[in-house]
Amino acid sequence: MGGLAQLAQAAGHKVSGCDANLYPPMSDQLLSAGVVVIEGYSADQLSIKPDVWVIGNVVTRGNPLMEAILDRGMAYMSGPQWLAENVLRGRHVVAVAGTHGKTTTTAMLAKIIDQAGLDPGYLIGGVPEDFGRSARLGQGPVFIIEADEYDTAFFDKRSKFLHYRPRTLVINNLEFDHADIFPDLAAIETQFHHLVRTLPASARIVANAGDDAVSRVLARGCWSELHTFGAAGMWCIDSEAPFQIRLDDKPLGALRLAMGGQHNRLNALAAIAAASHVGVPAATALAALAAFGGVKRRLEVRGVVGGVTVIDDFAHHPTAFAQTIAAVRASNPDGRVIAIFEPRSNTMKRGAVSALLSDSLSRADRVFCFAGGIDWDVAQTLRPLGATATVHDDLTSMIAAIVEFAADGDQLVVMSNGAFGNIHSELLARLKTRPTATQRAA
């Protein structure tokens, strides 16, 4: 919604907006864009008298401002509907969908298509380092969007991506998530099936060849050109450096990517395949990716103190935990990987994927979990990890324990989809003030 507000402002509208909690980087972006930001949902905001209220999917019945809007009969619509009618119409929409990798793949596509000189618009659920903001209107024919399967609004329970009508669609992978919205993976697959049904025959679907759930979706019907990627796909990448990209076994060039991890190499492969549909050659895409600066909160190094590196990652699902840990391990095989996480997403809070948790963290040398406010037994779930994992209900004491445990060469990987009590800065500050290794030994 913050990105959408920036797009509306750039399109010439006067925009204001409100949320329960405002914090950087989005609050800073909105202020910089000239968007008036209001904290809270008080009904006195009706005095603004906008032409239309654009409603995000966190707003529910009982929200005081929403109730006042309904009582007055004022005009309102969902964010995805406003976007479709006012920004996406008439443009070649490149949509990136799937459980994992949407933000990074969308940012990669923005980098590739921008470097190709096509001046794309984009809307990304994170801040790409190459652009410094999560949304841009762009003047070119292409618009790139992170396409989420979460529901649209309290009055429109379809997945958001059904509004976007893409001509190029990436489906990275599918797993059970959003347990507050979907009862099971089959329900999510049905929403993706509905999305595939909206694509014209001239569209291209770029689909993960190694994902069973994606294959099930496409088996229910596919009316568009299909390009697969991955080890068994049309587009594939060698498993070892120099990571040669191939299309139908024809070499196209080597992928040079600063971001580590096999999952990010697959994200890049999907982006190259999708960009080719709008006319960007693989060589141009590879050159752009070699200069790709990454995305904030995706394996972002927040600082190094006393040989200890603090990394911020948005991972909030067991599969993402495993991928992140593997990527950090591969980039620094001789150092310890210390995983620090909180079960914060709605799916994790409900314990819906808890059976996957201990295995996903098993490659970390040490695990710290902050479980304050969680009503299921996280400690029992992590019991297979033994003394390697500890669960804490107090964030301050957990930070102290992490700082006490950390040693030169360690990688502290903080994984959460929230602010996590500003733990990254707290860790760096505490590491700066702790005694040196020599002083501790004495």
Written overview of the protein:
- This protein is of the alpha/beta class.
- It has 3 domains: 2-74, NAD(P)-binding Rossmann-like Domain (Rossmann fold, 3-Layer(aba) Sandwich), CATH 3.40.50.720; 80-290, Mur-like, catalytic domain (UDP-N-acetylmuramoyl-L-alanine:D-glutamate ligase), CATH 3.40.1190; 300-441, Protein-Tyrosine Phosphatase, Chain A.
- Helices cover 33% and strands 21% of the residues.
- It contains 16 helices and 22 strands.
- The strands form 6 sheets. Strands 7-6-8-5-11-12-13 form a 7-stranded mixed β-sheet, with helices on both faces.
- The longest helix has 15 residues, at 262-276.
- It is globular and about 60 Å long.
- The mean pLDDT is 93.
Largest beta-sheet details: 7 strands, mixed
What is the number of beta strands?
22
Q: What is the tally of helical segments? A: 16
What is the oligomeric state here?
single chain
Anisotropy-based shape? globular
Mean of all residue-level pLDDT scores: 93
Amino- and carboxy-terminal Cα gap: 54 Å
The CATH first-level class of the largest domain comes to Alpha Beta
CATH superfamily (homologous) name of the largest domain = Mur-like, catalytic domain
Low-confidence stretches: none
Domain module tally: 3
Q: Which fold does the CATH topology of the largest domain refer to?
A: UDP-N-acetylmuramoyl-L-alanine:D-glutamate ligase
Query: Structural class, judged by helices and strands?
Result: alpha/beta
Biggest sheet: strand arrangement = 7-6-8-5-11-12-13
